[in-house]
Write a structure and sequence with these properties.
The protein has 83 residues and is mainly beta. The protein contains no helices and eight strands. The structure holds copper (II) ion. This is Plastocyanin.
């Protein structure tokens, strides 16, 4: 199963909606010039502050739709759909 990736750049998550298979791991990479976080709306995962160049991984063991945001910039939102 291929790894799924989300890039953080220009104060946005790309792709904003990432679909994976249940059990798959997603890696976020902060390619921006400032800190961001990857924080689940239900707090089921949280990267903490991610400095530029850092990565965060989370495995989505259970199918579902997982909304997340950046705790520093709440207008930054994304979704992972695991199925
Ligand atoms: Cu941010």
């Amino acid at each position: 199963m291929a790894a799924a990736a989300v890039q953080i750049k220009n104060f946005a998550f790309a792709p904003a909606s990432q679909t994976v298979a249940a059990g798959q791991t997603v890696t976020w990479t902060n390619d921006d010039s400032t800190d961001h976080t990857v924080t689940a709306d239900d707090n089921s995962f949280d990267s903490g502050r991610l400095a530029p160049g850092k990565t965060f991984t989370h495995t989505f063991a259970t199918a579902g739709t997982y909304a997340y945001h950046c705790a520093i910039h709440p207008n930054m939102t994304g979704t992972v759909v695991a199925r």
